[in-house]
Specification:
This protein is about 15% helix and about 15% strand. By secondary structure, it is α+β, with helices and mostly antiparallel strands. The strands form 4 sheets. The protein has a 5-stranded antiparallel sheet, with helices on one face. Helix 4 crosses helix 5. The radius of gyration is 25 Å and the shape is elongated. The C terminus is likely disordered.
């Protein structure tokens, strides 16, 4: 729509009156709930505290508009132009912003819970204090973006470009990060916690980093996501760490490292990184062998089996002894390639032998 056509559409739905102003439009607190404003021209318009819940703003031009404190939950903002727009404290929860241009936009303290930002452009945007919990940022571009103290809880960051972004003070918990780009990303510290409204508890999970350390520890690499359906004890975690060390000592080049442990009730999610995609199958075989031995019982947490004996097309696992056992009921693994693609590796019940493709 042209500017004139947009004013006419607003006249027809009764939210404005009279001739189109020559100066900046003031539509503060306007009610546009569920309205069809596809391709509307709303550039530089004052929409402070506007109610646009469920509105259709597909391909709308809202460049430079003031949408601070606006209500836009469940709105369709796909492919809209929001370059430089003020979205301070705006409620965009469950909104769809697929391929929207939010470059240099102000999104401080914005609510983006469950928002869909697949392929969106947020280069240079300020998302400090924003809540992106459960949001989908798959393949989005957040280059040089300010993410200070924002919530990235259960957020989909697969293949997200965070080059030069600042995540200092962010709550990074249970996020999907396969294939994300952390080149030159800054993070003086983060909180590995989901305690968004409990600072005392959140502070217990603060992790500080030296310059460049965050990128080195969390940068995209091949990974094995291990899911354990069983109450995981502290001794079990120590045993898992011992197993990873043992595998590294006996298999040069695998360079396994545990990068994430998330425990919720009787479900534990553990990410084990390795350096390359072609090492994933071997690493999964070694982890499976060691974990099965840990379930059946081994001489000590430091003496895990270090090799798989070929037997036909599968692998025979050789027991050591029965003096130590991990408390695992059911376990599954997914292999995550550096590009974010995932394939199932194995599923195991009570230590039964499983073949890994």
């Amino acid at each position: 729509m042209t500017k004139e056509e947009t004013w006419k559409a607003l006249l027809e739905i009764g939210v404005v009156s009279g001739q189109m102003p020559l100066q900046r439009w003031d539509l503060s607190a306007v009610k546009l709930i569920g309205r069809n404003l596809q391709k509307a021209y709303l550039r530089d318009v004052n929409l402070h505290k506007a109610d646009m819940r469920g509105a259709d703003l597909y391909k709308a031009d809202m460049r430079g508009a003031d949408l601070s404190d606006a209500l836009m939950s469940r709105a369709n903002v796909n492919r809209a132009d929001l370059y430089g727009t003020n979205l301070h404290r705006t409620d965009l929860s469950i909104a769809s912003l697929i391929e929207a241009d939010l470059s240099t936009a102000i999104l401080t303290e914005a609510e983006l819970v469950c928002a869909i930002l697949h392929g969106a452009y947020l280069n240079g945007a300020n998302l400090s204090g924003a809540n992106l919990s459960n949001a989908n940022l798959y393949n989005a571009s957040l280059r040089s973006c300010a993410l200070n103290e924002c919530a990235l809880i259960n957020t989909n960051l697969i293949s997200t470009d965070l080059t030069g972004a600042d995540l200092t003070g962010a709550l990074l918990y249970n996020a999907s990060t396969a294939g994300w780009n952390l080149k030159d990303t800054r993070a003086d510290y983060i909180y590995h916690s989901s305690e968004l409204y409990n600072p005392t508890e959140r502070d217990k999970h603060k992790i500080s980093f030296a310059p460049g350390q965050f990128e080195g520890m969390y940068g995209s690499c091949a990974a094995i996501d291990v899911t354990i359906e069983s109450p995981l004890l502290f001794d079990d975690l120590l045993s898992l760490e011992a197993l990873v060390r043992h595998i590294n000592n006996n298999h040069d080049g695998l360079a396994l490292s545990i990068s994430r442990v998330s425990i919720s009730g009787e479900l534990a999610s553990i990410r084990v990184n390795t350096s390359r995609d072609d090492l994933l199958s071997m690493a999964a075989m070694q982890l499976t062998a060691g974990l099965q031995m840990a379930i059946k019982g081994t001489a000590s947490t430091q003496q895990f089996i270090s090799a798989l004996v070929p037997e036909g097309s599968s692998y025979k696992i050789v027991p050591l002894s029965n003096s130590f056992k991990m408390h695992l009921k059911r376990l599954s693994m997914n292999l995550v390639n550096q590009d974010g693609s995932v394939r199932s590796a194995c599923s195991e019940i009570a230590g039964s032998c499983i073949e890994i493709a």
